[in-house]
Write a structure and sequence with these properties.
It is a single chain. The chain is mostly helical. The chain has helices at residues 8-25, 39-55, 58-71, 95-102, 105-119, 142-157, 161-178, 211-227, 235-249, 276-291, 300-311, 335-339, 348-370, and strands at residues 138-140, 189-191, 315-317, 320-322, 326-327, 343-344. The longest helix has 23 residues, at 348-370. The chain is built from 13 helices and 6 strands. Helix 1 runs antiparallel to helix 13. Strand 3 and strand 4 (320-322) form a beta hairpin. The model has no long low-confidence stretch (mean pLDDT 96). The protein has a single domain (8-363), classed as Glycosyltransferase (Alpha/alpha barrel).
């Protein structure tokens, strides 16, 4: 496949193939980590939900609902989660469409539970959420995705202005403390106390631009902007932050493959490597931002090259789709730390990101086709 070339039916077929591959591999109760309400499952199922919303394949909705129902008891209590981890609050985003479709009071109780823990999550003196209760005064970019879209949607759905306001403030605090003025890229994390081994003693910033961490940011911001009314006081500030970050990412796309690399700004280093989940997230965010009228349509070429770059890496083994080159989860570290992280095939991080990319690619291409 040539760089930037694909057909909307092709990515639709691949999205179905990915969902069906994972549904064959894992029954809902077997999604890893088992007996855990965690973002690994949440990211994958959020991607599947986006494909369901396009295709209306009821098998996908049943699968998502079955997983959620295994995590919540008859009275709406979440069985297995750590409320001191933003990562364990992210799957709450799946409860909104289920509550809307079913009006099951258990889902509202679970939503309120997650909202309570987000509102009371430990914060830095500036008001930024710690990444985890055990990570005192540390902010990681990942947290903007784990808690941000939930806060925005909860605030809008149930008319809770402070949840919405706080979610927006988290983005602004994170940008202030992680954005590099020269490149416009955001480092992976920031330590208020400047004492972590990875933290610069003057700025508190971590040393590297980890691509997937910025992927979390742009996916979160496009989610927020899709549900915020343009008349909201929060809309234009978030729009400006998103467009600036997307523009900062564009120069680092590999010209030959269309991919973005594990460490964003070191594409020329042969030890660095193209990472699939981040490429999917960046392509999805560009497509969505263009479709929403937020980002210049001329940048669709970069998204299309990213999509075709990902599709070129797929393979089929024993009837299952293989999605490779996915960095497993990682903490914060130096350059060697990120380069040494293992990769996986069909890791839930990557499959979820792949489905998001497919969904936004489908929507964007259809939108372009239908435009006069």
């Amino acid at each position: 496949m040539k760089n930037g070339e694909f057909h909307v039916n092709q990515i639709t077929d691949y999205a179905h193939f990915a969902c069906e591959t994972m549904m064959r591999k894992f029954k809902p109760q077997e999604l890893p980590p088992i007996r855990s309400f965690h973002y690994h499952q949440g990211v994958f199922l959020a991607g599947m939900m986006q494909i369901y919303e396009i295709t209306k394949n009821e098998a996908y909705l049943r699968y998502i609902k079955e997983w959620i129902d295994l995590q919540i008891d008859a009275t709406g209590n979440i069985k297995h989660f750590n409320p001191g981890k933003l990562d364990d609050l992210q799957p709450g985003i799946l409860l909104f469409p289920l509550f809307e479709k079913t009006a099951d009071p258990r889902y509202k109780i679970a939503l309120d539970t997650i909202a309570y823990f987000i509102r009371n999550f430990p914060r830095t003196p500036e008001g930024g959420y710690w990444h985890m209760a055990c990570c005192r005064n540390q902010m990681w970019l990942d947290g903007l995705y784990m808690a941000g879209p939930f806060g925005v949607q909860y605030g809008l759905t149930f008319n809770v202005p402070d949840m919405l306001q706080t979610a927006v403030q988290q983005v602004q605090i994170m940008k202030k403390n992680t954005c590099d003025d020269a490149s416009g890229l955001w480092v992976h994390a920031w330590d208020y106390e400047h004492t972590q081994p990875w933290a610069d003693q003057i700025t508190g910033r971590s040393p590297e631009f980890w691509s997937r961490s910025m992927g979390w940011v742009v996916i979160a911001l496009t989610y927020d902007l899709a549900i915020l009314p343009p008349s909201s006081e929060h809309y234009n500030p978030l729009k400006a932050i998103l467009t600036e970050l997307l523009e900062a990412l564009l120069p680092w796309q590999d010209a030959d493959t269309g991919m973005w690399y594990q460490v964003t700004d070191k594409v020329a280093d042969p030890n660095n490597w193209a990472e699939l989940s981040a490429t999917c997230m960046f392509a999805a965010a560009i497509c969505k931002a263009v479709r929403l009228g937020i980002f210049n349509p001329k940048h669709l070429d970069a998204a299309r090259r990213g999509i075709s770059g990902v599709l070129n890496r797929l393979s089929i083994v024993d009837g299952d789709l293989q999605i490779p080159d996915i960095c497993v989860g990682t903490g914060v570290g130096d350059y060697a730390h990120y380069l040494a992280r293992p990769t996986s095939v069909n890791d839930l991080h990557g499959v979820g990101a792949f489905l998001m990319m497919c969904a936004e690619g489908i929507k964007c291409e259809k939108s372009c086709t239908e435009s006069p």
